[in-house]
């Protein structure tokens, strides 16, 4: 090993190469053999690895992983450069999906040789020598593209590091002491991209190859423009930049470079084992980059995320943000927006970009009351002030508390699903505190006018409705994240029915207060019908899954207490444990289920939905699913222009159509299974067994629907 004498090395520089000595000593050992001294077993060896540096074994290079030396100045063919540019997008998109920089972006070896391929240091080398492999393709074209990729990662890293999304949960921020060109202005890199495009026009290569490389450079330029866009001062440039980027992606898709040969330098330019040479504190794992088709799909998803940001910034309603977040939250896990987009949306809503520069500071509270009750915040505050000694401070407390609560709720829609579930559990107590505050204020305000008294009574219910929707989101998220065991699912569906019963009762109390010609009234009617349909669906599924409960009551009670501990809190000053939401607990579930089973020999179903005497036909579940489907179909035909956020409501209707399809598919599968069972079993003995058999065939697949099951097909 050659060591420069001017470098100061700890311990001096009198080193002797002992590689041959170790090779000779290990010549008789097979791959995987371990030499253990007396008293030093494999357990002690593994303990040393665990306690010490996690990369202690990173120096082991298997023969299958040995690679030829990489020379960054080796000339490349135009199609090889085009292929490397495509794989640079693959590295970047894989980093956005949650892998580390060392596993993705840094595997492109040109990242580590930016100085070597700098044309300013190669003054004696002709950049265009007329050959089919001009060195300028590397030093001018490829270097500009790699610089732009690193700068895109730098700008993304700055947004992701704001704390809106969570490092090591949503993304990986470890830079491994490799520069992302933090100190290089984006404008300088854009000039390099333009210069590379101009140089390519002077190159004597095939026109289709030249156009393909230029298209990729222009696509990279458009992405860099998007990443560096300041939405606070240049929001109007977002949409034109998106149009340019989509056009660039469309042109790139028209040409796919051929796969380089195995001995090509282009193949060696991507080294997945580069992590062994980097200061990395995470366990190393080789990541297989996605196929190029998937890369372009991921890039299109990133552009769709920017389009969603643009749509939200153009909206002036709170409902637009909440509906968009809710729909994205229930999307399949693999279709969630990239962490960068989720962070950017939170920044736009949480930071000064939206609140202080586009709307007044009271915008959230004003929109919340207007869109919930159809009544202005001014009118609500006047009602709260009536009869209060210190009315001004109380009203300000309501405004501050509601604004903070809604602000955090909207932000949470763009957390990752487990993180949002934890947030919702913790937020229930905050909802309860604001609800109690509003109740105390409205109780002190008696009115002779019945209309004003009705509004005063309805004001706290708005917070209670929001709290109940939060409870439903928590329960449904258990299905979405596959958290429930078999015997927990019927209890979860039963809980949904109980919560919706309370929700529907409160809606009936609030509706008379809301002006019937307002969007708030139309949205509340829409929500009421939607929850009525959910009540039927969940009641039917509770009945269908009851046969999955096989644990004794004591065990179920313990599991219930652990699963639903977020429903309970300490009551002060008595310090007694009470439920945050006044819904029945596990004892009521046992009581109701035993009554139903003893009365009809069928599993429990909500008494509110149907009488016990009606549960005599095994086709009852199918009928309930059909009725719910018809109710949801009515919602798909409503006039969304009456609502606060018509565009987002259309997206919600698309999700309702997915629910309709799930109900229809489940009802059809159940009907077929019942018909098949009727042909092979005696009618007198088959009903209960068929119901148990159907319940055990249910499969919850979040990709199909976040909380509704499908029916598995028989494999026999």
Automatic annotation (TrEMBL):
Residues 337-500 form the NAA35-like TPR repeats domain. Keywords: Cytoplasm. Its main location: cytoplasm. It is found in: Cytoplasm. GO terms for cellular component: NatC complex. InterPro entries: NAA35-like_N (IPR057983), Naa35_N (IPR007244), TPR_NAA35 (IPR057982). It comes from the Eukaryota. It holds the Pfam family TPR_NAA35. Residues 32-190 form the NAA35-like N-terminal domain. PANTHER family: GLUCOSE REPRESSIBLE PROTEIN MAK10 (PTHR21373), N-ALPHA-ACETYLTRANSFERASE 35, NATC AUXILIARY SUBUNIT (PTHR21373:SF0). Belongs to the MAK10 family. This is Uncharacterized protein.
